[in-house]
Recover the amino acids of this structure.
């Protein structure tokens, strides 16, 4: 079945450091890929998404590129802020057709940014 | 209210109690979802409703019973739960039930079963 593997946390960075959170996936067909973020005490929010190979999703300074050849969707940000402290989830949806709404999530990576 | 709201935000119940979780979406969406978020485990999809009809039931125990009376409201009725059912229960909605439809999540209900 489909699966998502993301780096285990927690990740602790100083403000303005460069962030990379690795995500790789296994899927049949052509999934869409997502990064969700969960701030303390809140639900998940969509951060960015990419629906086909070589697409780059971006939002709030975060970027991720859909790499079909390496089955990866790594999240990056050039300069993190304290307000970026949250749990980040990589997810995929199972391509098109019946059941394509089904999101498969990774376990999440907790990021803490210290001043 | 905007987005997806859930009540209550926190719930403590005994194993013999009956309680219900409520979700309401104010986005005009047609699909709604229940997820379970347990510590150290990936989010698990429990139920999916599209146009008020259940389209997914991921082998969830019968002590969890969903209800979708209209496209804006979704309930999860709970009875005779076990301590391992303690988790964060998240509701989500999307315009349709396709992979290109972004799912919008509520803040969740933190459930503790004693």
């Amino acid at each position: 079945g489909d699966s998502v593997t993301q780096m285990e946390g927690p990740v602790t960075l100083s403000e303005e450091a460069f962030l990379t959170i690795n995500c790789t996936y296994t899927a049949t067909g052509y999934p869409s890929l997502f990064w969700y973020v969960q701030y303390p005490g809140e639900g998940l929010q969509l951060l960015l998404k990419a629906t086909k190979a070589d697409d780059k999703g971006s939002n709030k300074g975060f970027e991720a590129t859909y790499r079909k050849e390496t089955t990866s969707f790594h999240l990056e940000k050039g300069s993190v802020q304290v307000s970026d402290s949250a749990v980040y989830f990589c997810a995929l949806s199972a391509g098109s057709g019946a059941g394509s709404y089904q999101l498969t999530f990774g376990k999440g990576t907790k990021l803490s940014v210290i001043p | 209210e905007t987005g997806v709201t859930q009540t209550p935000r926190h719930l403590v119940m005994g194993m013999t109690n009956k309680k219900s979780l409520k979700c309401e979406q104010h986005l005009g969406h047609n699909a709604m979802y229940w997820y379970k978020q347990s510590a150290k485990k990936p989010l698990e999809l429990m139920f999916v409703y599209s146009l008020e009809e259940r389209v997914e039931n991921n082998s969830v125990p019968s002590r969890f019973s969903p209800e979708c009376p209209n496209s804006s409201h979704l309930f999860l009725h709970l009875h005779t739960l076990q301590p391992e059912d303690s988790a964060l229960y998240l509701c989500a909605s999307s315009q349709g039930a396709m992979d290109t439809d972004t799912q919008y999540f509520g803040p969740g209900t933190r459930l503790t079963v004693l």
In short: The interface with chain A takes residues 4, 6, 31, 33, 40-43, 45, 48, 50, 56, 90, 92, 94, 96-108 of chain B (CB under 8 Å). The mean pLDDT of chain B is 90. The two ends of chain B are 32 Å apart (CA to CA). Residues 46 and 58 of chain B are 5 Å apart (CA to CA).
